[in-house]
Specification:
Helix content: 55-70%
Number of strands: 0
Strand content: under 5%
Radius of gyration: 20 Å
Largest sheet: none
Distance between the termini: 26 Å
Number of domains: 1
Structural class: mainly alpha
Low-confidence stretches: 1-25
Shape: globular
Length: 273
């Protein structure tokens, strides 16, 4: 027997979800606003605006917030941390050691690690996911897939325009702007896309084996990308840390924007949102 719960509830409790099948035919639970939570309260303050407008407002405000945070953290890293307690020198030694231990097979593997989080593969992944979701009329899922990468990319661009950080002083295996080391855009993008999609899947499918496999895949993918960027001499470890924070923040912003839009749709009697 299946137990139904309101769409605005924080969880979907069904016997199907316990068996690892979708918990809801329409929504991914992590994108559903909690009853009385901040997303629902914020949606109530928009005075009945269309859910799409609500989504865009929440997303853009979130983007501005994490861009300011990323720029501020970039200045902290490049102007304070790297000059204190030998942190900058230690940061550089990691890249020097990796460059000294390069081999042809490792170099090829690092190219793969960079490519799977690069400007060709990720847009294809996002476009494919968004297309499938659009065909199935899962608009919030499509919006999440597209805009989580857009928010990450915009934050990265804004940060590199303001924070000028020199890349590791080793032989670099790619030709990119030398003064755009902080943060690691590839690391941030891998978390935003692969981590974000795994978050949606593991929210909808509750089978423990599937969840374990999915999160191991996501963590391994991000680690592979980060290690590849270090190996190729494109970023310092601190740059990787900055990329991790940007990627996680992009996912948080899109989750909140989707929840707020869904709550706005529910308040308008829009049903599916």
């Amino acid at each position: 027997m299946e137990v139904e719960t309101p769409r605005t509830g924080s969880r979907f409790l069904t016997t199907a979800s316990q068996r690892g099948r979708p918990a809801s035919a329409d929504d991914v639970p992590v994108l559903v606003a909690r009853q009385g939570g901040p997303a629902e309260r914020l949606a109530g303050r928009f005075g009945g605006l269309h859910p799409t407008v609500v989504f865009l407002i929440a997303m853009l405000v979130g983007l501005a917030a994490i861009a300011v945070f990323s720029v501020g953290l970039g200045f902290l890293v490049t102007r304070v941390l790297e000059r204190a307690w030998g942190i900058g020198a230690a940061d550089e030694r990691v890249n020097v050691w990796l460059a000294a231990h390069r081999t042809s097979s490792r170099t090829e593997a690092s190219l793969v690690g960079s490519t799977v989080a690069g400007g060709v593969v990720l847009p294809i992944v996002v476009a494919a996911v968004a297309l499938v979701c659009a065909v199935l009329r899962k608009w919030r899922l499509a919006a999440f897939a597209v805009f989580v990468l857009a928010v990450e990319s915009a934050t990265y661009r804004a940060t590199t325009l303001v924070v000028h950080s020199h890349r590791p002083r080793v032989v670099r295996l790619e030709h990119l702007p030398v003064n755009a080391s902080y943060p690691s855009g590839h690391t941030a993008a891998s978390i935003a896309v692969y981590g974000g999609l795994v978050l949606l899947l593991t929210s909808r499918f509750t089978n423990s084996v599937f969840r374990t496999f999915a999160w191991v895949f996501a963590v391994a993918m991000v680690a592979f990308v980060a290690a590849s960027r270090l190996y190729r001499g494109m970023h310092h470890p601190l740059d990787i840390g900055g990329g991790v924070l940007v990627g996680v923040a992009a996912v948080v912003v899109l989750v909140f924007a989707c929840r707020t839009a869904g709550a706005a749709a529910a308040s308008r009697g829009g049903g599916r949102g």
